[in-house]
Amino acid sequence: MWIERKALAAEIPAAAALETRQLCELLAALGFPVDGVAAREGAEVLDVDITANRGDAMSHRGMAREVAAKLQQPLAPLAPPPVTEGAPRVQVRLESPACPLYATALLSLGEGTTPLETQAFLRALEASPKHLPAVDASNDLLHRYGHPTHAFDADRIRGAVSIRQAKAGEALVTLDGVARTLAAEDLVIADEAGPIALAGVMGGEGTKVTESTRRVLLESAWFEPKSVKATARRHSLHTDASHRFGRGADPAMAAVARDLLVHRLQSWAGATLEGAWTVGGLPPVPAPVSVPETLLTRVAGEARPLAEGVEALRRLGCAVETQPGTLVVQPPSWRHDLAIPEDLAEEVLRLRGYEHIPSVLPPLEGPPLPLAAEYLQRQAVARRLAHLGFHQTVTYGFISPDADAAFAVAGNPAEGRTLLNPLGQEYSVMRGTLLSSLRSAAEQNLRQGAREIRLFELAPTYTSGPQGPAEQFTLGLVWGGTLGGEDYLNPARPVREADLSGMARDLGLARLPEVRALGEGLFGFELPVADLPQAGARIIPTFRAFSRFPSVERDLSLLVDLGQSHETLTAAMRAVLPAGILQDLRCVDVFRHKSLPEGSQAWLMRLRFQADRTLVGDEVDGWVASALAAAEALGAKLRA
Amino acid sequence: MDHLLPTEIIEAGRAFPEALAACGDLDALLRLKGAYVGRDGSHAARLMELLKTAPKEQKRDLGAAINGLKQQWEEGLKVRQAELEAAKKHLNALADRWDPSLPPPVPARGALHPLNRLMDRLVEVFRPLGFHVEEGPEVETEAHNFDGLNIPEDHPAKASSDTFYLAAHPALLLRTHTSPVQVRTLLRVAPQLAAGGGIRFLAPGRVYRKDEIDPTHSPMFHQVEGMLVGRGIGMQHLKGTLEYALRALFGPHTEIRLRPSYFPFVEPGCEVDVSCPLCEAKGCRVCKGSGWVEILGAGLIHPNVLRYAGIDPAEWSGWAFGMGVERMAMMLSQTPDLRLFFENDQRFLNTMGGLD
User: Which residues does the UniProt record annotate as the domain B5 (chain A) (predicted)?
Assistant: First the structure.
């Protein structure tokens, strides 16, 4: 909201002495940060950020009240004397509890226009003047005092005015030219022909003030915030008036604003007052709030004298009585946000300044709870994969139905995971798989010229169920592109599906997940994090004995068929070797060359033995011979 | 003497020095040796055959000539062998010499995502103060996301224009903040609170709001919330904790500033600023010259939030805070565009996050 400095100083003269920076700091300390300062129409204007609970602060007068309370300086008095009320000139009927109070006046307009100073003021606030005194004066009041008012062309009103709920289906063309169909929940101002305004939101086109308007009927009412907010939302019609009524206007200001409006029209446009009257009365005042001293202490962060609370709350317009250890507080009519003791304790602290809160660490009341095993497990897996050269990704939880269908498992219908109101089709399904997102990220990297892609993500995937989507943290991993080739010891080769199996083994998986081809030379798998081995449960792992005697290593160069399964061969060899002594059996080299017999390849198998004693050459030879025999039984031959 | 030998052998004898010199390696030398002095079929062998059939009177001279030639060849071969062996040894010595300036093979480098790193770091920072981690689902009920947090029916965040709902389950939505974790945790611990003497935890996670994707907005982003409930907990404990944590995060000289603000689930509420960690509060682009950067929202837990969970606000009080992870990561890393965090370009990830 824009605040003009000169207009602020008109309400709180002490503010004039402050430099702009001081004023901004003071407002920020009160909870009204200034987002920017601009110079317009020869005036300095501040863009003040006002929180949703402070409808009372949405005006120069409201802001001035805050500054005055903080500076402990008086506000300027509201200038004009009250207008004398008389008998109603137009019948006004209050037919809904959402409008308990309706102050109005009927005036004949004379000659004259909006003063230049007011026009400049409105322009400085980015509110364009209409050069219609009744409209501009209402606008001027809104910005200065925060109370929305409205002027109807009185000659276009037919019969009595009622403030009532709309009849479902009733129509109204609002001032913005839009024809609106009303709902029964909408509160309207109506004449005998139908609705003439959406109460607290916007006037109607049919009764608007124009250059030919001769007589105006002024409206200065108080509407229930809930009703106004709901109507504004229903019609997507967020106006200056609906913002203020929706956040709670000051009911005591209704008649005052009407009087101010009358005075302006008399002085600007030579208007003649035909009559002023009020229908209804102030809404009931909420019960006073008791604020215990202990709460004041807790909120302030330290014990403070009770008198400080009394003083601060009175400066904010509250009526305060003291009882032993308690303040009994009646908030002012403009502060709808002060409803519970905590609200009032906050006000005392706010006026004192948050900078005075002491800084104290909370006492530890017991041993801290451990971190959950699954959380630790995810962290451990992520770090493990990063150490293995994988990059962790973060992708959106919602994807397109097609992307979801590409990898989601059967029996997980997308309908149960579909958003009602997505940003677009491509973000409409809560994903049942991570692989589509990872594939997109991988393809994007390949397009950007990456040689090798190693990506993973740890994020929830969703499974449709009768109660809604069930979530489980899932690990997804992709690997693709060209492996190696970037140093002279590791020749380049394409990533193979088998590389992912190796990765799965490295993660300690008992069962290899299904490796999926995600595209040319791009492979991936995914599995629930719960299926990964647990980590981090033990601070110190269990000791496993190891031999201090030297190990013996033997290589067997075997000629095997191209179709030979490595797993079968090693299983057969293992079966004949002493389990406790064989430490390792692996293929360390694969040689395929035309010099080898057709249909065969050479595998260099390395066997490592170790025991709790020094091994003797003969026994090792015996084992190697047995292993060879087992291999030969499968058709392998010792390579010459 | 030559007249005693056949012409082809005389020719071979003449060609020998050249052939010997042409032997570039030991294998070639071995072949030459076979051709000249080998057991079968060599020049020397054929000469020996010749000797068997020669007339008796010539045998002596012929034998001397053959032996002389053979000896000549053998010596030549021996000398050349020594030369070649020396050369090979030299080459081997060169081959064994390692050039330390050659680039060593480096294992492939991966990285944790910068948003995850920052969240992990926050957990590390709060861990010594006794905080653990609580998590909750991303698809939430309206009750957990709004009602339990004292968010009124007409709050803008409840509107379908701000929030994603599930088509098949209209009462379910994608959580708009990590605060439902607070509600779930309070509901769970409420019965044991008195025995345990309070609770303190962080809730890191992903949240969703209906924002279009642009350099500063994303429909999915991350938050870390913290909550502490105990007896006699006040604003001083909030300030003390945040001062400790933000100094651990940004450096020991970091100052913090609390400003009044409004959130429905806390009372009083505040915005928390830190002295700009990038310019040490001298004023820069990041802090817009003010020396301060807004970092999180916080406050004392609204009594209605405690009541919703069945906790008596007269006995228990506490505080909560929440921060946007992307915002903080962007500020700390000076990343200009939020979308980079979700594009997952390996170059970006490498730049942003090695392992600690």
Answer: 284-359
Higher pLDDT, A271 or B62: A271
Interchain CB distance below 8 Å, A395 and B300: no
Instruction: With a cut of 90, say whether residue A434 has pLDDT above it.
Output: yes
Cβ separation A362–B154 shorter than 8 A: no
Domain range enclosing A616: 552-638
- CA dist., res. A468 & res. A101, Å (int): 47
Assess whether B67 and B139 both reside in one domain.
no
Same domain, A454 and A493: yes
Angle between helices B235-250 and A293-300 (to 10 degrees): 10
Give the C-alpha separation, B121 to B116, whole Å: 8
Q: What is the CATH number of the domain that holds B211?
A: 3.30.930.10
Per-position b or e across B212-236, b if 16+ CB within 10 A of its CB: eeeeeebbbbbbbbbbbbbeebbbb
User: Does A510 have pLDDT greater than 70?
Assistant: yes
Minimum distance, in Å, between the CA of residue B313 and any CA atom of chain A: 11
A285 burial via Cβ count (<10 Å: 0-12, 13-18, 19+): exposed
Domain boundary among the residues B97, B129, B157 is at: B97
Q: What is the CATH number of the domain that holds A303?
A: 3.30.56.10
- How many domains does chain A fold into? 5
Range of the domain at B306: 114-355
Which of A408-417, A534-543, A564-573 shows the lowest per-residue confidence on average (mean pLDDT)?
Answer: A534-543
- State yes or no: pLDDT of B356 exceeds 80: no
> Which residues are A525's β-sheet partners?
A477
Do A479 and A617 lie in one domain? The reply is no
Lowest-pLDDT range, A112-116, B143-147, B151-155, B316-320?
B151-155
Q: How confident is the model at residue B12 (pLDDT cuts 50, 70, 90)?
A: confident
3-state DSSP assignment of residue A212: coil
In a domain, A470, yes or no: yes
Residue of B nearest to A236 (CA): B161
Q: Is A625 on the interface with B (CB under 8 A)?
A: no
pLDDT at B123 over 60: yes
pLDDT exceeds 70 at position A125: yes
Q: What is the pLDDT of residue B9?
A: 78
Tell me the residue ranges of DSSP E strands in A154-299: 161-165, 171-173, 179-181, 187-191, 194-198, 202-203, 215-222, 272-280, 289-292
B60 & B148 share domain: no
State how far the Cα of A65 lies from the Cα of A60, in Å rounded to an integer. Answer: 9
Provide the number of structural domains found in chain B.
2
- Say whether both A393 and A343 belong to one domain: no
Amino acid A129: pLDDT: 94
The answer on pLDDT for A73 being more than 90 is yes
Contact with chain B for residue A345, Cβ under 8 A: yes
Question: Is the pLDDT assigned to residue B1 strictly greater than 70?
Answer: no
Cβ of A372 within 8 Å of Cβ of B243? The answer is no
Report pLDDT digits (tens) over A310-331. Answer: 999 999 999 999 999 999 999 9
Rounded to an integer, what distance in angstroms lies between the CA atom of residue B32 and that of residue B43? 11
What is the overall mean pLDDT for chain B? Answer: 90
pTM summary value: 0.84
Same domain, A123 and A45: no
Which residues of B are known binding-site members for Mg(2+)? 267
Same domain, A317 and A234: no
The residue of chain B with its CA nearest to that of A359 is B240
- Pairing mode, if any, of strands A516-519 and A552-561? unpaired
Residue A545 falls inside a structural domain:
no
Residues A150 and A59 in one domain: no
Distance CA A572, CA A594 (A): 28
Same-domain pairing of B93 and B238: no
pLDDT attached to residue A277 = 97
Last residue of a domain, one of A232, A249, A280: A280
A204: tokens are 């109607």
